[in-house]
Fold each of these.
Amino acid sequence: MTNTLPRKALLSSLLGAATLALAVASTSTFAQEKVLRIGMTAADIPRTLGQPDQGFEGNRFTGIPMYDALTHWDLSKYDEASVLLPGLATEWAVDASDTTKWVFKLREGVKFHDGSDFNADAVVWNVQKVLDQAAKHFDASQVGVTASRMPTLHSARAIDAYTVELTTSEPDAFLPLNLTNLFMASPAHWEAKLAAVPASVTDPAERSAQAWRAFAADASGTGPFKMSAFSPRERLEMVRNEAYWDPARTPKLDRVVMIPLPEANARTAALLSGQVDWIEAPSPDAMDQIRSRGFTIYSNPQPHVWPWQLSFAEGSPWLDKRVRHAANLCVNREELKQLLGGMMGIPKGTVTPDHPWWGNPSFDIRYDPDAAKALMTEAGFSASSPVKVKVQISASGSGQMQPLPMNEYVQESLRECFFDIEFDVLEWNTLFTNWRRGAKDPTANGAHAINVSFAAMDPFFAMVRFSSTGAFPPVSNNWGFFGNDEIDAIIADARTSFDDTERDAALARLHARIVDEAPFVWIAHDVGPRAMSPKVKNVVQPKSWFIDIAPMDIE
Amino acid sequence: MFLYLLRRVIYTLPIMLGVAFLCFLLVHISPGDPLVSILPPDASIELQRQLMTLYGFDRSYFEQFVSWIWRALQGDLGTSIATGRPVADEVFRAVGNTLMLAGVATLIGFFFGSLFGFVAGYFRDSWVDRAASALSVLGVSVPHYWLGMVLVIIFSSWLMILPATGAGPGGSGAWVWDWAHVQYLILPAVTMSVIPMGIIARTVRALVADILAQEFVVGLKAKGMTDVGIFLHVVKNAAPTALAVMGLQLGYLLGGSILIETVFSWPGTGFLLNSAIFQRDLPLLQGTILVLAMFFVLLNLLVDVLQTTLDPRIQRS
């Protein structure tokens, strides 16, 4: 008996301790911070002051998570084209009597991360920051990435606290789409940063620059995540905004850490070693290893076109439509897709057949070498007398996927159909600059095509800049001087169709004409591959350049 | 001595100016648009012109150069086009990180290089010598970025015992000398150390072999000194040259390694240069190159002065 009691006591003590340990463990599990760590392809943290740089990767990682725009892309579906949704504006309409004026009704009760109110004055202030050089907060460094994405936006005027009027330089039905790129930064927070600039700095421009610099290091938007720590070129940390206005996008994650990892092997190693939970664009030859270690590869065709843009300048072999069609019929895209480990979408045009702008073109882009050879024979070419074509390409570059192996594959493919392709390989930034100068410029070096991939999110970026005669170089990116009166008329129709259905119908007609005329050899759509730990949940990879981190969770 | 010092400093000024001019010229004559990082190719001509004016790129090269040099003399290296941050802040933060990496890499290289060199020289023509020599040749020959990737695959991806990238769990700004941070330094420092290790090992081996053949060593042996005693004499005689080689290697490593720092995402001058080149961020590129070039000019000045102090014959020549 004497021995039993202590044993019982010991047992109950052990049970008690175990229960306590379990309770503590479960409490700590519940209390454990949910942190998502992302390895970006960018070499630096995209700018955090509201208008990100680094292309759309900037919008993806420091724009959409920390800020809102008047209009948003729907990023909640993986199987439908991403369409426009209300963001900080709840509704909008063009003025029927003057179609250069738009009235936007704003969402009430939205607060910036610093606690100040979002209202019509904030919208006017954010338009002024990039368009009004007389405004004290005008910032030249934000102009380039903003104004070019909304080329017709001219000014803004507050009608009342929650109604704002935006004016365009000409009637432009694309404005609501373009406004997804204008992120709303907090005027009150910027004013506070300006007030903190030492009085010894007297030059207004320098004071403004210093205020923006301070704002970038401690930003304030209205987005689902708030900036919490920033180390230039190394890491950005954001915590959840519990007061976010959209319950569907109020984050479940406690913290998101973003790390720039420009080198593909370094990104893969960081993922495999558990340093990050998600990497952008894993190296194609590491896909199998990544999958075998239990990570998930997400991909989905995105509005990212990887083409050869053709020259219509005098003497170009592409002036013959049969040659243009033959090239489009001679690329075995299925085989190219295998070469890229499956990480490629097969294009049927600039947009996909499920897109509202598809338009049922009559020319079917497919692999049909016999039809291609027949067209080439008809055009006067043969194996012994191939057409000579020079193409400017880059060895690397943002959005260029794997330019060298892909272009070499296309070169070999086209050889079968009597094309003799020569490459003029340029450094990426040089090629990018030349793109604007056009096929007739000396920098084209006599090239008949150029390989620059592009975003096709909105009508201007996707089609207008490549098909309008008004976009001939050096005005915009119609490098090959493609266009005619009929296409210009369709573009004008689309720009002035303020009903969404009518606008989309006009854009569908435009897309069908572009595909039929084939000013491109459409080679690939990027699928935006990203690898994630299986711990990351609620991931939806939409048919978009962007992805919404807000609904994600981590186990 | 003072006059010599003054003369050397005066000689350095035109060199610095020449370096600055070359640096400005090389960056500006390369093709491409200086505003490419903030100006998409679809920007209107009007917008392009507006920004060229706002950033001062519409002025003549001469005006831009004079304005840049004048501001640089006052410690202002301009503002990064891509980030809007002051170039001086970016460069000096990166220099600090590279200094830390290069310092640790040099210490590793010096320790193992000296060890292999002494052992190889002392046991000349034995298998130990051949093994140590093979290691040193390997160190000099192996492409270090390749070695870096192999080390990452082994220690980060497979064994998962060392981090693959970065400069600490909270970034280099929150660096402290504890294991949580030092583990980030190991792989890049080891990778960076292989070249100095190989060079120091080969130098020390040759030195030791040479010293061992000298008459004073025979004399010491004849007097009955133990092997350990003789070894210590050899070390003492070889140390100055080995240290000089180490100093030289440190100088090279301080320039940063674009490849190693990029492979490991180490935020030093190499990583910064890589980023500036790809973003075509001219002020950042100019500023980084200028600071590194000035560093070498000043280092050379320092070496000249030190050598003259130690050996006045140099001053007379």
Note: Residues 145 and 259 of chain B are 6 Å apart (CA to CA).
Amino acid sequence: MKTLNKEAKHQETAQEVKISGAEAVIKCLLEEGADLAYGYPGGAIMPVYDEIYKYQEKFHHVLTRHEQGAIHAAQGFARVTGKPGIVFATSGPGATNLVTGIADAQIDSTPLVCITGQVASHLLGSDAFQETDIIGISTPVTKWNYQVTDASEIPEVIAKAFYIAKSGRPGPVLIDITKDAQFGELDFSYQKCKKIRSYKAVPDLEIEKLKDAATLINKAKKPLIVWGQGVILGEAEQEFKDFIEKTNIPSACTGLGLSALETSHPLHVGMVGMHGNYAPNVLTNSCDLLIAIGMRFDDRVTGNLATYAKQAKVIHFEIDAAEVDKNVKTEVAVVADVKESLTKIMPLVNKGDHNEWMQEFQKLYDIEHENVIYDQLNPTKEGLTMGEVLGGINKETNGDAVIVSDVGQHQMFAWRYANFNKTRSNVTSGGLGTMGFGLPAAIGAKMGVPDREVVAIIGDGGYQMTCNELGTILQTKAAVKVVVLNNNYLGMVRQWQELFFDKRYASTEMISPDFVKLAGAYDIEAQRVSKREDLDAAIQTMIASKEAYFLEVVIEQEDNVFPMIPTGASVSDVRLS
Amino acid sequence: MEEIKNYTISVYTENNVGILNRLSAIFLKRHINIESMTVSKSEIDNVHRFTFVVNISGNQAHKVVGQLEKQIEVIRAFFHTEDEIIYNETALFKISTEHLYNEEIQERMKFRRAHIIAITERYFVIEASGLKEDIDNMYDKLMPYGLLQFVRSGRIAITKPKMAISELLAEFN
């Protein structure tokens, strides 16, 4: 075990008991406060499953219908709770089926601890049954991974896994445990990991940088804040709110930043990005100071970098040093924990008054409202729109629900129109754009916050990628509310084909099964709505249900998402139609 | 377009299985070809040092090093241009013994850091070390005699600027 930092070994250890590696896995998870895992058994992970059976009083396992479902459920759980999601899978196909979810968690900074079984160590490299090099495969998409070949390594490796997954910028880790290491015995004692010598989870805040940032903020006439998920991951929602309320700076968010600040807050000027709000996109190119907080200037946020906020000075509050100057050159980078930075900058910033500047946001909002929002929420055309469904859900849930979205047009409508009163309420696949994320993530989210309403908004395409997880709902009774917005198209791709490929609808029309019958087969109450007059009642029935509920809404086929910044265009060239 | 230059990237890491894969994946993801690579122990116990040579822009070098450094088991990564380092590369040339007394080859051997390290009836082996250009020159000159084998090491480099790894490790802990 030369490969691991042995410091923990020298510290005081609790009394040692001989147990199997497999049992140690479960005991370690319990030590970390993790008593719920998602997964799928198979040959190489059977010793661990045997321990799950023995520990069933204390440790709960959710059997999904596919490993992808397990990992997305774990992601949903992690996103609503902030705790690492736990996933088990077997070697070979079990492990490779996790890869999409791992990549998704990596790009969206979601803490996960994935544990895969592996063939016995003497078989490594022999192309044994269900052997695959999951360490090699998962390396580019994990924050850290490690192969355990000896039972004695397990406590230290799992402690490290939790520390790495949760600390700093969170992310997925994968532990691959050979079958002999699961069967092998060890003297068990557990010590939580608090540091790793080669890893600085949280950079030290440089007060000078904070002062420079405060000077720019105090001088700015037209400052704009763009915040991202970092505010949520750093649990800095209150500090963020205090900061914007003191400085009175209009604040826009990225897709993943949604819900860190309640939608109704007067300084919340909407969402930036490809399908974001008109005002913050346009005014990104008018502000004199752009203050980025816990966001990474994704291309879907910035549009063409060559014309992005060139007139503005940029301050970047960020925990990950590698994000600084990656896409946008900053004037001042405050590389530290966001909660600490925002707390310590408070005495340095002046009370601000930017009412005139705020008026500009209002004016542009009015334009967007008149051209897009009003029609989406109060359509007069015959077919139902995605916007009005979200409007109906807002009305029934009062903005208190966790909204889980899949990927596509419906996702953009969910981000644009859902009201959020509480943080950690927008669960979605942002960076990777993983269709099929929605249904399993909603199941995990519901288990993470069982007392909250969890509504999944999914398109007919993404739904059919993981609708096998209806089986998980059937078995666990997870009371998720599933809304499928069905336009019989892969709507987002169809929209691009309409706008940029002369309406050549290549492989985007979709013939789907009877979704209501399908839900019925899984014993889930369901209905289909295709008329406006039935929509509100259907949503009421769904939300009132104490159990899982499925609602299919038949949507206008050629409904498009606007505003839109076409790929390669400038943020200020956002199209309203 | 920013100028493409030859950068030497030095990465100090823990000595674990799989690190090379993790580091090379960062180059792969950005479609950067690795010109040469050397791995060895470093001045610190249990800390390994990777030396990569790549042809990229300064901006890319900056970003790649940021990503390398972000890896959990990487202690620190640096990038340097050629004028910031003292470096060496070594090459072995295997040539047929019939050319052993060739005057031109003898002339080449006067090159400051080349010598013969083996002679047999059939072949002899020249070891040369120096800068990239020195080896390239030697290669061009010897090529016409028919190289039976040629191999060249990755770059090893010491930087002129200080690299305070020990201090950093102390600071981490």
Note: Residues 4-85+160-172 of chain B form a domain with the Alpha-Beta Plaits fold (CATH 3.30.70.260).
